[in-house]
Structure formats: C-alpha cells, structure tokens
Design goal:
single chain; alpha+beta; six-stranded antiparallel β-sheet; four-stranded mixed β-sheet; 18% strand; globular
Length: 574
C-alpha cells in the first residue's frame, strides 16, 4: 500500500489562489501547464466527472431514486457540498494565507497540512516523488492540470480509495489515511458485475464495508492536530487539537466501536450519509445506470443506499460559492447549493439540539427563567473548526407586548447586539472574551457556547499555529461523555468549573429577568442560534492583509450573514 505522508505541495497551492499563487481566481485552468505524471505511477485517482456518467440521475433510468421517485444520485447530491468544494472554499484559502502571513518560514508545513484534506487528490498526486498515478488507468494524464484535481475537493476517488488499514488509530489522524494502490475503489455492496466500471475507468469495484460503516474513515481528516509555533518559526513543543469530532463521538453513547454498544449507537455515515429518504423510508435502488442514460438491467437494487448529502451546519460558504461561481471556478449549478443549504437547515432544525424551559420561578420583581439545551449530535455542538458558535436569544414581553428584556439579539451582519442596539465589544477584533455562565443577569453578557484558543502564554489567539491550549471550550458535550474515557483529556471542556448543570449531552442556564408584578402575563421566547463563522472570527481574520483575505472579505460583505435557527421554546409567567 502507498502512503502520501510528508509530501511537498508547492505546486498544489500554485494551482489555487493562495499566498500569491500562480493561478488567480477566475483564471482559465487551460492556461496552466498540465501536470505530467511519471510513467510508473500506480495511484488510482480520477475526477468526479469520470464517475458522473454512471452515478448521476437520468430521466431514462430509475436508478438512484427513493421510494417517492426523487432523484438521489451520488454525483448530484455531492457536488454542492462543502466536501466537493473544499478546494474552492474561500474562507479556507483566506485562513491558510493568514497563517502563512503570520509565520512565513513555516509556509511549506502549512501548505502540506492544509492541502492534505482540502485538496487530497492534488496533494497526493504531487507527492511521493511522482510515483503515484493521479488519473484513472488508460487516461491521458498530460491533459489534466493539477488544479483540476485540487478543485475537485474531497472527491469520489478519495473516500472510495481509502484503505481500512489503521483507521481510528493515532497515525491515521491529520490526514494519515492510506490510499489503495491496486486499482480498486471500495463500496459496501457485493460486486456482481465489475465489467462496466472497469471498462470506463480501468478500476475494479471492490466490496469493503468501511466506506459506509467505519467512522474512523471520516476521523482521518476530522481529527486534526497542529503544532504550536512562535512568531520566529520555532516550535514550542505544544500539540493542539484543532478539531476532534471523531474523538468526541468515541466518548459518547453513539459510538459503535467498543462493546457494549448501546441502543443509540450510530456511526458518522448514519447521519451524514443517511440511508433513508427525507420521509424516513429505507432506500432500495440501483446504484448506477449506463453512461447512455439507461438502466443496467443486470444490476439489482441495493440497500442500504447512502444519500450523499454530507451536510453539517455550514450554510454561509455554500451561499458564497453559489453567488460567486465564476470567481471561485464553481462547477456545480446554483440548484445544487440550494439543495445543500436546505438539507443543512433541515439537519440543524430537526437533528441538532432541543431547547426547553423547564421552569420559571418568581423572586420578588424578577423571574428566573431556566433554559435547557440538549445536544442531539454525536459529537460536541458546535464541533469541528473553532470559528463556530451557538447562543441563546431570550426575549421577554409583557401583556401589552412591550419589550421587557432581551439578551442575545443579533443583526443581519451576524453580530450579537447589546441593549443599545450596537454590537457587543466581544464582536470586534481584540475585544473581550465572553465567559461561560450558569446565571445570566446582564442582558449585555449573553451565554455563548464556543471555543476560544490561547497561545503558550495563555493569551488569546485566533491563529491556529499560535494555539497551544484553550481559554474556553463550553461547547455542548455529546450524550454519554465521560471524564474517564481515554479521549477525555483531548476533548475536555474548559471554563465550566462550578457549573453543575453543564453535563454530558446538555447544559442549563438561568436568566434572571426584571419583570415586576402586575404587567404580566409575560411571554418568554427562547431561541438557539448557530454560526459556522462567528462575527468575531471574521473580524480577527480581517486584521490580516493578504489577497485571499481581501477576496473573502468581499464575499463576506455581500453575503447574508444571518445566523441559523436551531430550536426554540416559549413559556409564560405572571
């Protein structure tokens, strides 16, 4: 088997508009000199367009449809996702450029680590002294620019070529997956007919359940460690967990790797590649059709069939990609991004968190409103990249519908506001940090669940290479999280000491509201809101001057930055 660790990726970044790259956004890929591979290459990569002829919907075929006849082709569902567009993501490119600008002496390491999972085909194809094939056997590699592989993101031939070897181990994290070198692509079903796929790609369809059942496959990129570096480029010796959704899942009631496995067990694919329709009906369908658009009559309908929705909680970047298609060299139509945004919102609203108001108690002229939020995900919420946050907007009105009290209100720029209608100081670059709290008395001091990084001296930082530890991590833990689990030290909360209501799977916070007798009944509206990129993280990024940051700022300013509603509850009190 072949590994692509320790690769040089300068040419990969040259295929993307990062850090003064050779190809700027909007340039024609045909103007790049093609990437010329070695004659002894033996690594099976192909572009998604090579998979599309058989694994997309056609009006003349019933393949890849649910019980209601809806089209659920893998290619169509994937092409508008963050996975498909990970190499185009302007926020990622801006972030990479900001890290390079901060510590330019570490440019090669930054590029290597960041492209490994965001542009894995281009990263792998350029590595290992050109001893890996990055196109399907029999195709003319000299006609395929490396940028095409970079822009294809986390493509079909990445996930379906990853070997099961070592998945879930420490060595597999931070992009440490192994790619098959035997011209195979893996899938979960028994292979009854290999000829069609082989004749089209010279790759052999091979049954292997890890693509559909092993969370460690997802964990190879969604467990990422960085090494802390001083501004002069020297290492501090710290290792920082940039994101750990897989480790969080292992320490939850949802894990299915270690006995005993509980009734709520579910792997990553169960939620992010659902095998039921939007109606909840198990899917049984043919997984391919002929390139001419007709049925493969000899292929039986298969179940389970995973809908390649691959959504998390990010609606902002799909919107930006949709609205700036030419500048970002987007291949998918606007409808594909609309579908991804709709699926993301459905997941946020239906499968992410539940909000309730267990009690409202009067204490003199005040009401104590206890709010409970239960995390329904299999990892922390928010999870993944640390720019994400969730918070409560609590609004109290009296019998005459006059506003009595409000905390956590926001504007259309996604900034949390104070009672004066102005953004809180914590929303600006270099602003104060909002601490975790169990009791909210001041409406201008809302409860926000988030991660806040610190350098080796304990000072706040928003640059990954400077991060050594956390000042705050009060993101909701998954149900069943245990402080004695082997992964607990890496995923432990920070800044919640003294809060007995912050537990595995939930948190409760009390809002003390001035609400005098006689003006009720009072209506209490509680809403949980979510952002993939907080206003504060964007403000900190915009302090860096690079072309990529400038480009992203333009996209950001033009976008609808309103946060996403996760859940809401209402109560009344006198």
């Amino acid at each position: 088997m072949t590994s692509s660790r320790g690769i040089a990726v300068v040419a990969v970044l040259a295929a993307l508009p990062i850090g003064g790259a050779l190809l700027e956004a909007g340039d024609d890929a045909a103007s790049l000199p093609p990437y010329r591979a070695s004659a002894v290459d033996d690594h099976p990569f192909l572009l998604s367009m090579d998979c599309e002829p058989c694994h997309s919907n056609d009006p003349n075929a019933t393949a890849m449809r649910d019980s209601a006849g809806r089209e659920i082709g893998m290619f169509e569902m994937w092409r508008g996702t963050m996975m498909a567009n990970s190499g185009r993501d302007p926020y990622w490119r801006a972030g990479v450029s900001a890290e390079i600008a901060l510590i330019p002496s570490r440019r090669s390491e930054i590029e290597e680590k960041c492209t490994r999972c965001h542009t894995p085909m281009a990263s792998s194809a350029h590595g290992a002294s050109n001893t890996e094939r990055h196109w399907a056997p029999g195709k003319d590699a000299t006609s395929i620019p490396l940028s095409d592989f970079a822009l294809d993101g986390v493509s079909c031939a990445v996930c379906h070529a990853i070997l099961p070897d070592g998945l879930g181990t420490r060595d597999s994290f931070t992009g440490g997956f192994w790619i098959d070198d035997q011209d195979r692509l893996f899938g979960p079903h028994a292979v009854t007919l290999t000829a069609p796929m082989f004749s089209w790609t010279l790759l052999t369809a091979t049954q292997a359940n890890h693509t559909a059942e092993d969370s460690g496959l997802c964990g190879s990129c969604h467990t990422l460690f960085t090494h802390t570096v001083r501004l002069d480029g020297s290492a501090t010796g710290h290792e920082y967990p940039e994101q750990t959704p897989y480790l969080e899942w292992r320490n939850s009631v949802f894990q299915d790797e270690v006995a005993p496995v509980g009734p709520r067990a579910a792997d990553c694919q169960d939620c992010h590649l659902p095998t039921t329709s939007v109606d909840g009906v198990p899917i049984q369908t043919r997984i391919a059709r002929s390139p001419g658009g007709f049925e493969f009559q000899t292929i039986p309908a298969r179940s389970p069939y995973g809908r390649h929705t691959l959504v998390g909680g990010n609606t902002l970047i799909p919107q930006i990609l949709r609205d700036n298609a030419a500048a970002l060299r987007v291949a998918a139509p606007a409808s594909a991004f609309d579908a991804t945004i709709a699926a993301t919102r459905a997941q946020l609203r239906n499968d992410t968190a539940d909000v309730s108001v267990p009690s409202v108690m009067r204490h003199g002229a005040s009401l104590d409103v206890r709010v409970r939020v239960e995390n329904r995900t299999g990892h922390k919420f928010p999870s993944g990249y640390p720019s994400r946050r969730a918070w409560l907007r609590v609004t109290v009105t009296d019998a005459a519908q006059n506003l009595v009290w409000r905390s956590g209100h926001w504007d259309t720029q996604g900034r949390i506001l104070g009672n004066n209608g102005q953004p809180l100081a914590s929303e600006a670059a270099n602003g104060p940090l909002l601490l975790h709290k169990d009791l909210v008395v001041d409406p201008d001091d809302p409860q926000v669940w988030e991660l806040a990084m610190a350098d080796e001296h304990g000072a706040s930082t928003f640059r990954l290479l400077r991060a050594a530890t956390n000042l705050k991590d009060d993101r909701f833990l998954p149900a069943g999280w245990s402080p004695t689990h082997p992964d607990a030290a890496v995923t432990a909360p920070v800044g919640v000491a003294g809060d007995p209501n912050f537990t595995g799977g939930a948190d409760e916070v009390t809002y003390r509201v001035f609400a005098p007798h006689g003006a009720g009944p009072y209506r209490i509206d509680v809403e949980l809101w979510y952002q993939a990129i907080s206003a504060r993280w964007a403000a900190e990024l915009f302090t860096v001057n690079t072309p990529e940051v400038s480009d992203f700022r333009g996209y950001w300013n033009a976008a609808d930055r309103s946060p996403e509603l996760v859940d809401a509850a209402t109560a009344t009190a006198h």
